Amino acid sequence: MESPKPNGRGLSRRRAVGLLGAVGTATMTSLAGCLTGSRSDDDDDEETGSEDGSTLEFVHWWTAGGEEDAVEALLEGFLTQYGYDESRVSENPAPGGAGSALAAAVQSRLIDDSPPSVFQLWPGESLAPYTDSDVLADISDSWSTEMRETYLESVQALSRDGDGYVAVPINIHRLNNLFYNTAVVEDVGVEPATLTDPNDLLEAFEAVEDAGYVPLAHQTQDAWPTLQLWETVFVGLHGVESFRALLDRETEAPEPAIAETLELLVDYREYLSPDSDTLAWDQANGQVIAGDAAFTHQGDWAAGQYEATGLAYGEDWGHVAFPGTEGIYAMVLDSFVMPEPNPTPELTAEFLEYCGTVDAQERFNPPKGSIPPRTDVPIDAFPPFLVDQRAAFDASSSQPPTITHGSGVEPRAKSELEETFANLLENWNPEEATERIVEIL
Ligand code: GAL
Questions:
Q1: pTM of the model
Q2: Ligand 1 centre distance from Cα of residue 120 (Å)
Q3: What CATH number did the domain enclosing 426 receive?
Q4: pLDDT above 70: percentage of residues in the chain
Q5: What 8-state DSSP symbol labels residue 61?
Q6: Do residue 231 and residue 131 come from a single domain?
Q7: Per-position DSSP letters for 200-224, written without gaps between them
């Protein structure tokens, strides 16, 4: 096999090409600039990691909703565990829901051989461009026997590259949720628990609209919430087996199912927030919180926002599985990885090991709106919503992966699908989108 050829700045060709494969066209352009540009002294000034290995630079995108509180709780626990003061951690957020800005920010640093200490990444398919490019450390030593014995096996499997571990998951989110404002649905006379098919929503939306509320709070500024709505509606209409077959490219004639799902999205369009193209996901969710909208489809990070706003589960807001997906727990996992070369190897290992503890997962998950991937974390003191989600997880018949949040398809396909949905949001042409999705999947 040909060995990697270093470029002018010590960058292996394999590393650059592998990482470029992970991102979309827009990002590729900016990364290409990175590859050909020269590194200036100013670039060094922009990095916030310490030169002497004493400050952990932590890159994540959790600045929205209750997510900021979750990061704070995690970092506080880490500092307390090791008796460190605040100067030992420097947060360097790349805000943007579903990592819409993080990949470009981190990948240019990796290509430049100046990575942060640790960054957020979905386990599963998303890891491949990084492991293929040899930019992640094998952290098997940080996976203690206790972790190996207590983490769900399905989660561990997504954290490995071959036999070695490269990621430490911290949570399990659910994607197939429908959240609602209780006062609004009661006022309108809609009972969310009676909606059992994605088509049922149309009638409910109409009733909500007639009563003067926004039926479905949704953001279209970015494409990812519509891509995740599409995959959820697909599961709701066609079931998990068809969805998995689609991801595995095993469906012989996928057009009709894809087209039907897209056509329903076009019907939903009439009922979205009128200002959807100016909103971030937590602002759309804010319309439900404010009692201006009845429903929103979102991962249960939205629940963290309800809790942070002081709304009471069951009284002020409620939740059902997205119509047609009862008994299904579409998993979205977050994990942390150690890039190499690493500016703070020991500190990074300490942080990753901490994230694998009961203490870390007990602190992080309640404000985040997720359940722990370790099976021995006591959850009795978690918010009642999460106690219910945990029961739903335990009772679920399947836990499919997701396209939008990285576990279901390789990053290149995910980014092409995002482009497809960005186009759909421009032209609302389901035929064109169907054709494109069939080419990609
Ligand atoms: C997901 C991530 C969640 C949440 C969400 C919204 O991809 O796994 O933790 O942050 O995006 O940004």
A1: 0.91
A2: 10
A3: 3.40.190.10
A4: 88
A5: -
A6: no
A7: HHHHHHHHHHHTTSEEEE---SSSH
